[in-house]
Amino acid sequence: MGPLNGVKVVELASLAPAPFGCMVLADLGADVLQIRRGSPGEGLSAPAGPLDRGKRTLALDLKSERDLEVAHEIIAAADVFVEGFRPGVTERLGLGPDVLLARNPRLVYARMTGWGQHGELAARAGHDINYIALAGALEPIGRAGERPVPPLNLIGDFAGGGMLLALGVIAALYERERSGAGQVVDAAMVDGAALLTAFLHGMHASGLWNEERGTNALDGGAPFYDTYECADGRYVAVGCVEPQFFAQLVAGLGIDAELPFHLDPRGWPEIRERLRAAFEQRPRDEWAKLFADTDACVTPVLSPWEAAEHPHNQERELFVEVDGVRQPAPAPRFSRTPAELPRPSEPAPGGAADVLTRWGNGHAS
Length: 365
Known about the structure:
Blueprint: E1 8-12, H1 17-27, E2 31-37, E3 55-60, H2 65-76, E4 80-83, H3 89-93, H4 97-103, E5 108-113, H5 128-135, H6 154-179, E6 183-188, H7 189-195, H8 198-205, E7 225-229, E8 235-239, H9 243-253, H10 268-279, H11 284-291, E9 298-300, H12 311-315, E10 319-322, E11 325-328, E12 346-347, H13 351-359
Parallel strand pairs: 1-2, 1-4, 2-3, 3-12, 4-5, 5-6
Antiparallel strand pairs: 7-8, 8-9, 10-11
Helix pairs in contact: 1-6, 2-13, 5-6, 5-7, 6-7
């Protein structure tokens, strides 16, 4: 099941971005084997969770010549190898791209780093906040006159990291169908975070995005694109950019007085105050119900734990339960090759020998 059914992926266990990218590949049907390096029980990787769903695991002591050779045999039978370490680490382990591609020329060797495989910072430590800061993706996020606000670790680790990795792998697999040859995919979080700001660069070049955070149309500067506190202390999100949608918002709030043209920044303070005062009159879920059948673009601000209870998300089956943990369902959706319900991570049955038997020892597809 899934459009990547039959694709064999070896993931060298690491943290966050690469496991997320391999989770996406597993969700789409790939057979993902996660190698946990070190002797069994050493605890050199994160505990199993949603990022490891759909994968099989195998513990190998890569300092052992025997286990290193087992890893080589498995990777020789794979389509994709994924590692998420600083440049040079896998080379020192004996699993660098030159070695693996010499044995399996069709291999797609995917590398997930923060700074990339070259550049003056390539060997330096960092985390999501550092990569998105240097890429220009952190500075615009926050309220006017306040510090930039880290958007969790969603932009660097996951959107600009693991998702970019998965896209790169799929693109390289597609190209391999024409050339017959594998290649190295250099996925860097600083690259991906910068890529996500393409729209901002276009807006800035057109004079539609000024230099100060929190004062623009889509960063909380405009009253029609912001969050508002309700009577119960919870929040709604408002995103009525177009005039016809803004008109439905004003009608739903019962604001009778004429307001300034909502796209003119000179009137934003007055509009914001009127909207703030109106939303404070009812609790969040009452507003959500009132606006549910309109195009006013008003939605409740839900926590990740509330989101699964929303009727729309339930109808879409947006969340699933895997091994007792509620989590997002695989996406996107496919009409002919739908993804299966993810299964919990589990040890490879029969160990390395079984993997080699199933994959066809030494014969990558």
